[in-house]
Design brief:
The chain has nine helices and seven strands. By secondary structure, the protein is of the alpha+beta class. The protein has two domains: 37 residues; 170 residues, Pnp Oxidase, Chain A, CATH 2.30.110.10. The longest helix is centred in the first third of the chain and has 37 residues.
């Protein structure tokens, strides 16, 4: 009788543990799906693409050529970060001169572990943003690419809005979509891709960072 009672108690405890585990998993899954549905990086950043004017289109064409690419690759990020700070995120050099919406991407250095901020052109992909590591078609891969490969968590700032994100490498189909969308936004991407055909151009999809699961389960 005693042995049978102990077995019954153990079975009940096992079922209770299983039910608790299932409930925790269901809560985590529901929270994750709800979080994904509620978060859109494009809308959270108030990221808008506007039609460039005639002068801005000329500047875009100049940046596509080899001399312009060489010049902007070496100087633009310093000018852009300075203007961004001075105007509290309201203005960027490419926004003024070329009519291009720029984000500020803050990553963790792959080697140094220090925070690094770079102005980049985000490419809208559905509700999220893609980043194309074309580096103006230069021979080298930009440093922020290695930072994201080593530390995918980053911060994206556009205007006064900032969002914590996680970067993932794009799939083959997403890479093609990103280049198509990028070329529609800025024609230089197609030229840069051809010019940098000697190396792999990394493409990332930025998604709002998910909440920690240990917090959701409580």
């Amino acid at each position: 009788m005693l042995l049978g009672h102990l077995r019954a108690v153990n079975c009940e405890q096992h079922r209770s543990l299983q039910d608790g585990t299932k409930t925790s998993l269901i809560r985590r899954s529901a929270a994750t799906h709800a979080y994904r549905r509620s978060m859109s990086l494009v809308s959270d950043l108030r990221y808008e693409v506007r039609e460039p004017n005639a002068i801005q289109r000329v500047v875009q064409m100049a940046a596509t050529g080899r001399p312009g690419s060489w010049f902007f690759q070496r100087t633009l990020y310093r000018l852009d970060k300075g203007l961004f700070r001075l105007t509290n995120g309201r203005l960027t050099v490419p926004g003024l001169m070329a009519g291009l919406p720029i984000i500020m991407l803050t990553t963790t250095g792959a080697k140094t572990g220090k925070l690094r901020t770079m102005p980049l052109l985000g490419v809208p992909m559905d509700a999220q943003l893609a980043l194309i590591g074309s580096n103006y078609g230069q021979r080298s891969t930009p440093g922020w690419v290695f930072n994201l490969l080593a530390h995918p968590d980053a911060t994206v700032t556009h205007g006064s809005a900032s969002v914590e994100v996680t970067a993932r490498s794009a799939t083959e189909s997403e890479i093609e979509r990103a280049f198509e969308a990028g070329a529609a936004l800025y024609g230089g991407f197609s030229t840069y891709r051809e010019r940098a055909a000697h190396r792999k151009i990394e493409v990332f999809i930025l998604e709002p960072r998910q909440p920690r699961m240990d917090r959701v389960a409580t």
